[in-house]
């Protein structure tokens, strides 16, 4: 089994480089057209030259620790002023909705109290309380 390991590693690298080249957008490929890179990988894959050249020189690599070049960096939500502003706006909307609900609840409670004082039924389909004789 151990004698097949080098062959399997070469095959795995060959397949990885081929799939990586095929899936890479044309804008991220350096030097040669994509078709030429695919041919280099396939023709020189058995001796590892094609896949290694592709991995080293064929694709524009992004920096390991940072953001891609030319793009905005990621900002944590608690450091993002736009996100914090949107939270304040949502909070104001929620507070306004809560005040409306509370006012509606007070109005309904007042209506129920008035109905009870007038001797009218307390709700739909309910009979007035029996009078004591």
TrEMBL record:
Biased composition (Basic and acidic residues): 109-118
Superkingdom: Bacteria
Region Disordered, residue ranges: 109-133
Keyword Ribonucleoprotein in record: no
Membrane topology, record value: Multi-pass membrane protein
InterPro entries, A to Z: CLS_N (IPR027379)
Keywords on record: Cell membrane, Membrane, Transmembrane, Transmembrane helix
Location of the Cardiolipin synthase N-terminal domain: 12-58
Annotated compartments: Cell membrane
Transmembrane regions listed in the UniProt entry: 35-57
Protein's recorded name: PLD nuclease N-terminal domain-containing protein
């Amino acid at each position: 089994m151990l004698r097949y390991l080098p062959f399997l590693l070469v095959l795995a690298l060959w397949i990885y480089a081929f799939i990586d080249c095929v899936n890479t957008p044309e804008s991220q490929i350096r030097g040669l057209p994509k078709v030429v890179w695919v041919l280099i990988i396939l023709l020189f894959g058995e001796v590892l030259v094609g896949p290694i050249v592709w991995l080293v020189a064929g694709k524009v690599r992004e920096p390991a620790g940072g953001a891609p070049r030319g793009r905005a960096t990621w900002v944590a939500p608690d450091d993002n002023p736009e996100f914090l502003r949107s939270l304040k706006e949502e909070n104001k909307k929620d507070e306004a909705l809560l005040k409306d609900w509370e006012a509606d609840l007070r109005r309904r409670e007042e209506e129920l109290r008035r109905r009870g004082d007038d001797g009218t039924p307390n709700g739909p389909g309910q009979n007035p309380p029996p009078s004591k004789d």
